[in-house]
Amino acid sequence: MFEKLSDKLEHAFKVLKGEGKITEINVAETLKEVRKALLDADVNYKVAKQFTDTVREKALGQNVLTAVSPGQLMIKIAHDELTQLMGGSKEEINLRESPAIILMSGLQGSGKTTLSGKLANFLKSKKQKHPLLVACDVYRPAAIDQLKVLGEQISVPVYCEEDVKDPVAIARRGIDYAKEHHQNVVIIDTAGRLAIDEQMMQEIAAIRDAVRPSEILFVVDSMTGQDAVNTAKAFNDKLNFDGVVLTKLDGDTRGGAALSIRSVVNKPIKFVGTGEKLDALDIFYPERMADRILGMGDIVSLVEKAQEQFDEKEAARLQKKIAKNQFGFSDFLQQIQQIKKMGNMKDLLGMIPGVGKAIRDVDISNDSFKQIEAIIQSMTAGERDNPAIINGSRRQRIAKGSGTTVQDVNKLLKQFEEMRKMMKVFSNRDQASKMMRSMPGMRR
Question: Do 166 and 50 share a domain, yes or no?
C-alpha cells in the first residue's frame, strides 16, 4: 500500500537529515521533492500545491527543539497535514434509523457489488446488525447472481426480482421486505456503467428520491488515481453522497485518490477495501493512513485485528498452559490458524513500525505456514502435547507424512522448544523483569 509514495517521501525528507536547523533553502528543496512525489502518485495538482505550501508555512514558523532534528520536525508537520488532508478523523456510517438505508453508487468495475457484500458482512459481524441486500442492477444479470452468492457466503438475505426492470420499484419493495422481516439495515446495490452517462445518473437519483437513504456511499477503484477523483466529483454533483469507499487499496495504488478525494469533493472516506476476502473491509482512519504513508507502520490496526480473533478466556487458558510449560503443538497450530484469519501476512507485518520497508521486496505469502501446519498435523495427539517423546523413528514418520525432510522436522522442534522457554520466562513477570535488567543498556 503506497510503497512508491512512501519511498519517494522518505527520499525527500533525507534532504534535512543532519541539518542543524530549518531554513528557507533546505525547506524549499525538501518540499520540491515532496510535491514531485505527490504528483507522481497522481495527487491532484492543486491539492499537492496547497499541501506543500501549508507545510512550508508551518515549518518556517517553528523553532527546532534540541531533542528533535529538522528532519523529524518536518515529518511530524507532514504527518499532521496528511492526516488533515484525508479528513482528520474517522467518520462513522449513519445507522441511526431503522431500517437504515444505504444506497451504493459507482461505475461498473469499481467493485460495488462485492463491496455491498463486504459491508453487509462488516455490519453483521462487527456492528451486530441484521442487513438485507437488495439487487437493483437490472441490466447486468450476473450482478444479481453475484449478490446472491455473496449473501449465501455471509448468511445475509438478498431481495431480488429477476423479471422486473424497474429498479425504483425493486428498491421500495426491498425496504418493505426488510421491515416485515425485521432487517434493520438495507444495502441497495445499483447499476453501474463503464462511463458516466445521463441515464445512469437519472436512474440512481430516482432511487435516492424514492427511498430517501440514510447514507449514500460512492464506491471507487483507488487504482484509477486521478480519474477516481474526477468520477467522484461528477457523482457528488448529482447525488450529494455522504461518503467514499476506496476499493483495491491493497493493489499497486499510487495514493492519488486517497489523498485528493476529501479536498476535491469535501466528503469523507469512510471505508477502504484491502483484499478479495469478504472480511477485507476496514474503517478509514486518516491518521493511521498517514502513519503508513510515512513508513511509520500501523500498530493500532494490527492490535485491533488481533483482538478480533483472540478472546479473553482463550488468552487466560493459554497463559496458564504457558506458565506450567504445557503449551503444545495443538495450541501452536490453533494460534497459527487465528493469525491467518487476521488477513494478508505481508500487510500484517507491514503494520509493524520499521518492518514494512525491510520486507518490501520479500515474497511473503499466506502459504508461509503450510509446511509447519503439515508437520504438526502429521503428529499424533500425544506427540503434539508432549514433543519430548518425538525420537528418531517418530521424526522420520512425521517427515514422511508431511512431505518434508527430517531436517525440517528437527528445525521446527528446536524453534518450538526455544519459543516455549521464552514464553515461560515472559509469563513470569519477576523473571522477565530480572532478565530485562540484566541486558546491556537496560540497567537504571
Answer: no
Please state at what angle helix 24-40 crosses helix 3-13, rounded to 10 degrees.
Answer: 170
Domain containing residue 37: CATH number: 1.20.120.140
**Integer Cα distance of 298 and 79 in angstroms:** 13
Query: Per DSSP, what are the bridge partners of residue 281?
Result: 273
pTM, 2 dp:
0.64
Q: How many whole angstroms separate alpha carbon 84 and alpha carbon 294?
A: 14
Dump pLDDT digits (tens) for 256-280. 677 777 878 888 889 888 777 888 8
Question: Angle CA(371)–CA(374)–CA(380) in degrees, nearest 5?
Answer: 140
Residue 95 lies in a domain: no
- 191 occurs within a structural domain: yes
What is the residue range of 369's domain?
A: 303-438
Determine the Cα–Cα distance for residues 372 and 419; give it in Å rounded to an integer: 14
Q: What is the pLDDT of residues 344-402, one digit of tens each?
A: 655 655 555 444 454 455 555 556 678 888 999 999 999 998 888 999 999 999 999 99
Is 41 in contact with 5 (CB distance < 8 Å)?
yes
Largest CA distance in the chain: 77
